[in-house]
Q: What sequence folds into this?
């Protein structure tokens, strides 16, 4: 696909900003973060409600997004959300970045498949511990949509990837292990366990049991460096 973008193609973004990647294999990498707004899930622990339950954002042309990104001293872009694979305009944007030789990470819950260009598909499949607390239509929708094994198989066959699971309690490990039985092609080295929490104290406490638990199964422990360093503050 051509990386040509037109002035008609637009995306609604909650944020576009420069920071350090705080999670996963590229932790510490200076990156431009493009945060789309809108999500098909409503995890109770969502740390960006302004992209899910209370979506905010402004429309930007793809040309402007590329122009703003190129002002920063990096060629790593992290496309995140919300769910960044929801809007169709994400496809030409990723191809435009690829044509300009950027390294592209996409952070997704792995429920939607699109023909994007991507160097690292960072997939955070949602376990049953993410279910919205209120028994309403979103809870039902979340339960039906959060697990899309065919999409996950497609993504991991097509791209380099990491699977990041949000862990709330030690018992969650059982669900991770049974989940992974459906994907025998995933080696433990592609799996990251990330503590649920939006403040440094909670994360520090959970690391005391989660780090050894991850090591026991050959998984990576995934600190949330951006929260440890900056708190759960919105970037812009
Ligand atoms: S998938 Fe991510 S952005 Fe969407 S509700 Fe869950 S935590 Fe929030």
A:
């Amino acid at each position: 696909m051509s990386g040509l973008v037109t002035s008609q193609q637009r995306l609604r973004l909650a944020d576009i900003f420069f920071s350090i990647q705080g999670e996963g294999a590229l932790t510490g990498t200076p990156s431009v973060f493009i945060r789309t707004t809108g999500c098909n899930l409503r995890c109770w622990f969502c740390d960006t409600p302004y992209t899910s339950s209370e979506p905010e954002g402004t429309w930007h042309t793809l040309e402007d997004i590329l122009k703003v990104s190129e002002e920063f001293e990096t060629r790593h872009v992290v496309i995140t959300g919300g769910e960044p694979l929801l809007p169709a305009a994400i496809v030409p944007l990723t191809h435009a970045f690829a044509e300009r030789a950027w390294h592209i990470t996409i952070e997704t819950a792995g429920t939607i498949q699109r023909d994007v260009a991507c160097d690292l598909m960072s997939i955070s499949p949602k376990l049953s511990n993410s279910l919205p607390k209120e028994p309403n239509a979103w809870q039902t929708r979340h339960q039906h949509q959060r697990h899309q094994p065919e999409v996950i198989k497609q993504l991991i066959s097509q791209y380099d990837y990491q699977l990041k699971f949000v862990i709330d309690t030690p018992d969650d490990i059982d669900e991770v292990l049974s989940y992974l039985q459906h994907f025998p092609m995933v080696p433990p080295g592609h799996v990251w366990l990330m503590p649920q929490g939006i403040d440094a104290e909670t994360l520090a406490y959970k690391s005391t049991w989660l780090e050894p638990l991850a090591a026991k199964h050959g998984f990576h422990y995934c600190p949330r460096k951006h929260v440890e360093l900056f708190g759960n503050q919105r970037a812009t």
About this structure: The pocket of iron/sulfur cluster is lined by residues 39, 41-43, 46, 48, 51-52, 81-83, 109 (CB under 6 Å). The mean pLDDT is 94. The domain at 10-184 is CATH 3.20.20.70 (TIM Barrel). The radius of gyration is 17 Å.
